[in-house]
Amino acid sequence: MFKNVIIIWISLFLLLSCTKKDVENLDPVVIEKGGVFIVNEGNFSVANSSLSYYYPDTSSILNNLFYKTNNVPLGDVAQSITIHNDMVFIVINNSGLIYGLNSSTLKYDGKINGLISPREIAFIDDNKAYVSDLFSTSIAVVDPKEYTVTGSIEIGKSSDCMISVGDKTMIANWSAYNQTTLNNTVMVIDNKLDMLTDSIVIGIEPNSMVIDKYNQLWVLCSGGFMNDEKPTLWKIDVGTLNTIKQYTFSNILQSPDNLCINGEGDSLYFLNSGVWGMSVDDQQLPDSPIIDGSTKNYYSLGINPLQSDIYVSDALDYNQNGIVYRYTPAGKLVSEFQAGIIPGCFGFNN
Questions:
Q1: Alpha-carbon distance 349 to 31, whole Å?
Q2: pLDDT (tens digit per residue) in 195-233
Q3: Pairing of strands 162-165, 168-172
Q4: What is the secondary structure of 69-123 as a DSSP string?
Q5: Residue 226, SS3?
Q6: What is the pTM of this model?
């Protein structure tokens, strides 16, 4: 037992000492297009995050892929996934780093170090990306090809989800950590200047954002961890940064999150115990869910941009491997499969 522990820690040290392309080939894995990556968060400070891949055509699932291909654990709290060109970037929150993997083999290509508590990575172009951070008041500017931090943008608040639209990047101030002001803004960065230029006041605790077919920004706000106010959904004009419409949930005890949109950009989905859906042209919130969640512990939501299939994870008790359910856009169950501990986000490899 003691020898095995020593071997694992030596392997982890070797990987974390690398910066780029230093890991030898291990078990060969070939990832084909058309599947879905599932990033399993794992438990905080336990370092049991993992990566899964699901093939919809055959309903087959491959689990623990990062370890199988790189011979080390993925890390402590895998937060998000972004697929860019032929690379997969996985943000590891509590480990303070971002891994770059070959999208076909999942072999380690490099990592971005020096981050405090990274949440998401948003690509501005092939040579520049922004990284949001829970515990920092600045956005990191990184070179994703060289795996280096090249600068920072002070925004004065913590940051979470991001969306780049044209020359702007919208950044949600989800957490009130380490700030004296309310966490009720979307901050706007000029991508050319790498500078904070504006902010939009919305509801408390904005947790997710999407862009619709009209190029309008939608922001879902939970209302706060302590139910400070009723949850809200905001529709914002990206050009003027003005609010077009505010939708207010009736129950202050609700905590909607995981706002998603289909590939056509005309249908919104979110979690609120169950899975809810609405058109971007609707003038009011839906009355009933598409998928009932009263007997589940739904944790994360994803919409395949090609087929509009709905993927929703059940974290169960947060200690055992979670379940992922796949539904049609109308809410009919297609399949279910076991992923890793706390399936947290989806990456559609189309």
A1: 9
A2: 999 999 999 999 999 999 999 999 999 999 999 999 999
A3: antiparallel
A4: HHSS---S-EEEEEEETTEEEEEETTTTEEEEEETTT--EEEEE---SSEEEEEE
A5: coil
A6: 0.92
